[in-house]
Each structure stands twice: as C-alpha cells, then as structure tokens.
Amino acid sequence: MTSYLIIGAGNFGAGTALSLVKRPGTTKVTLVDTTAFPNPRAASHDVNKIVRDDYPDKLYMQMLKRAMPMWRNHELYKAWYHEVGMLRADPSKFGEESMLSYKEAGVHNESRFLSVDEVRRRWNGAFATADFDGLERILYNPTVGFAEADKALEAVVREGVDQGVDYVIGVMTRLIFGVNGECTGVALQSGESLYADKVLLATGARTAALLAQSAPDNSDLHAGDRLLATGAVSFYAKVHGAQKERLSVIPVLKNCLPQVKGEGMSILKDGTIKFNCDMCFTNFVQCPLTGQRLSMAPDEQVYNVWTGPKFIKFFQERARKTLNGLYGKEVEGIAIDAYRVCWDASTPTHDFLITPHPHSRGLYVATGGSFHGWKFLPVIGDYIADMMQDRLDPEFADRWAWNKKGGDGHSANPTYQVVGDLQDWLA
C-alpha cells in the first residue's frame, strides 16, 4: 500500500491525483497548492485553451486518440469543451504532416485546406481583412476547438477531492530527504511538514527553483538545462451587440506568420475573446539560496495573474500587433481589457519531463508542459501515475526521461520560441 504527495494542482498534478486515488493499492493521496483550487497562477488556469489533436508527432497523437473522445463525451469534460473548429494559417508543412499522422494513427478526421479567399468570405466575413499575406491556403479542421480551462481544471480537482484526495493549501519551501538521500516529504512555509512514500513535483515553471533551493549544494538534484521557466502573454477583449452576433460563429484561429504569430480562441457566451501571442520569454534572476542565475517565475501578482488594460509597453504593442493580424479591420475599435503572463516550464524539445528523479528515491517530476500540455488533461494523469508505479510504456518513458536519450532536433511545439528576457523589458 502506497501514499502519494503531489505538489502543484495544475493539470499534471490534478490529473495525477484523480488517477491515483482511483487505483487499488493507494492508501492516501495529498494534493498541495498555494491557494484554494483552481490556483489562478497555474498555467492550467485560464479563460480557455485550444483543444486539438492534429499532431504530426505520433507519440502525442497516441495520447490524443484517447483524450479527444473524453473531451467530447465524458461527463467530467464535455460541458467545458466547444467544438467550433480551427483554422491554421501556417506556411510550414504542418497541415500535410498532421493529416498523414491522422491516417497512420487510424483516426478519422475532416481536415482540409481552404483557399484564403474562401476563409475571407466565410464566418460572416470575420477574417475578411486578416493578415494572410504570402499564403494561398489555410488548414481547416472542423472537429477540434477550445475548452474553458479554469472550469475544466476545477472540475478535475473537485472530482479528485470527492473521490478521497486530501487537498492542502500551503507553500512548499523545500523537499525533505532521508539519510540516504531519499525524498520523504516536503516542508511548508507554515512550518508544517508533509510525508509520503512517493513525492511528485508537478510544479511547472517553479520546478527548477524548488529543486535548487531544496539542495543548494547538490547539483545532481538540480534541473540543469532540462527545464527553463518561460512566460507567454495572453490577453482578452470583449465584443457586444451586432459584432458579438457576427463573431459568434468563428472557429479558433492560429496564425503562424512571423508578422502575426498568435491565436484567437473563439468567443464565449459573454462576448469574451481570448488571444495568445505565440512567443515566450525567460526571467533570469539570481536564485537566493544558490547564487546561480535561474529563469524563475516572478512572485509579483501582476506578472502571474490577469491584470488590467495597462501592462508592460512591449507586451501591449506586441498584443495589438497580434490582434490586428488575426482579425484586421474587424477589431479596429476594440480595446484590450486585460493581460496575463502564463508561466510554464519549457524543455529543449518541448517534450514533457515525466520521470523518476534518478538521484533521489521516492522523488518524481511531472512538468515541462512547454505551452502545449493542457489539452491532455483527461489522460495525462494516467501516464504520470503509470510512471510513478514503474509501468509507463517505454516509448513514453524514454521520450520524457530525466536523462533523455539522443537529440533528434524535433520540437513537439515548434511555434513557441524564446524571444527575450522579462528583465530587459522591465529595465
């Protein structure tokens, strides 16, 4: 019989808690986060996020082959999923590769290319003046869409609690180790300590810093170049009246052109449309306990949660450029209402890092969402639970390993690249 302690109630941690509490042999599952759920600082906590299964990467396609039917049909997820379709304006070979991936995986799909002229005419002309310069066709996938992220995450945590997960509010300060270096629990800022047979860090962008401050002198425990805390900018606007009606039919739009690089997430019932800038950035500062320079998610709320219509000038300008590129003249008079920096842990290949820690028995890591992990919410916990119980399929274990074998140059999420450092824009 085994007890589990999970730090972080984002989608990796919440999903794992729900999977573990339902498995035979589990004595106790404790899920710890810094606030009541869902935590507004978690990368998983958002207005909405894209849910799609058009992955050229066969490993993630395997996961989505299980996840998409759950988004559509499972009682826990289907209320939050909206299958509005998705357009992808992308000069790369992504469209051809994703359609081939569907075929090879035996997944039915209705993806097809539309001419730019057809995209401009359809959907009430919402994209009539969008920036599609240089493109002749745009990928259209009618059987994907978006989900209301904060509500779906809350539903998963609540279901875990209803099934017996113990949810604890607390701020982890460090891991606790036994005499042989094994991990036995965590210390909280309150002075309390929590113990379990197996400890999982599902702490996203804060993982590298937590490992470093838990063992400042033990570099074997540190993440090194495996993880980088990265931020990305989201923003939203509201439309009303006739414009709201006109935009009510629009699909998700992802525009990968360098002069746009962003996503529009379709419209919610209250007229909110959320957008992302497809770029990320670091935040290199000195780690207080080790003295080393680490990219760390800032503690200041303004750089973590939704904030008002005024923000860092660079981000305001970049967001406006993305918004104008996505919808053109349709959004000329629309003001941006709020901004958010979403922090996630990125890995060099944008693959997840889901692995036992090789230098501390009883310690496990599930992070590295790399800005594409959220859509796996219905199934990711099963994979992490399998990893913690030493029964994860070798194909996944090898790709997500602490000491990953080989570097084939691939990227599981190629559109999110580092463009700068937050400190440069704050200076």
Distance between the ends: 53 Å
Decide which structural class fits the backbone.
Answer: alpha/beta
Overall domain count: 1
Major β-sheet annotation:
8 strands, mixed
- Specify the CATH homologous superfamily: FAD/NAD(P)-binding domain
- CATH class membership: Alpha Beta
Percent in strands: 25-35%
Which residue ranges are poorly predicted, with pLDDT under 50 across at least 5 consecutive positions? none
Q: Write the CATH fold name.
A: FAD/NAD(P)-binding domain
Please count the helical segments.
11
Q: Rounded to an integer, what's the Rg over CA atoms?
A: 21 Å
The backbone outline, from C-alpha atoms, is globular
Mean model confidence by pLDDT = 94
What's the β-strand tally?
Answer: 24
Classify the helix fraction into a percent range: 25-40%
Textual characterization of the structure:
This protein is α/β, with parallel strands linked by helices and 427 residues long. The protein has one domain: FAD/NAD(P)-binding domain (3-Layer(bba) Sandwich), CATH 3.50.50.60. It is built from eleven helices and 24 strands. The strands form six sheets. An eight-stranded mixed β-sheet has the order 6-7-5-15-16-17-14-21. Strands 9-2-1-13-23-22 form a six-stranded mixed β-sheet, covered by helices on one side. β16 and β17 (272-277) form a beta hairpin. α1 crosses α9 and α2 crosses α9. The N and C termini lie far apart (53 Å). The model has no long low-confidence stretch (mean pLDDT 94). Its cofactor is FAD. This is Sarcosine oxidase.
Would you spell out the secondary-structure blueprint of this structure?
Elements: E1 2-7, H1 11-21, E2 26-33, E3 49-51, H2 58-73, E4 81-82, E5 86-89, H3 94-105, E6 112-115, H4 116-121, E7 137-141, E8 145-147, H5 149-163, E9 166-169, E10 172-177, E11 183-188, E12 193-195, E13 198-201, H6 207-214, E14 228-238, H7 241-247, E15 252-255, E16 262-267, E17 272-277, E18 280-282, E19 284-286, E20 293-295, H8 313-327, E21 338-346, E22 353-356, E23 363-367, H9 377-388, H10 394-399, E24 418-421, H11 422-426
Parallel strand pairs: 1-2, 1-13, 2-9, 5-15, 13-23, 18-24
Antiparallel strand pairs: 3-8, 4-8, 5-7, 6-7, 10-11, 11-12, 14-17, 14-21, 15-16, 16-17, 19-20, 22-23
Helix pairs in contact: 1-5, 1-9, 2-9
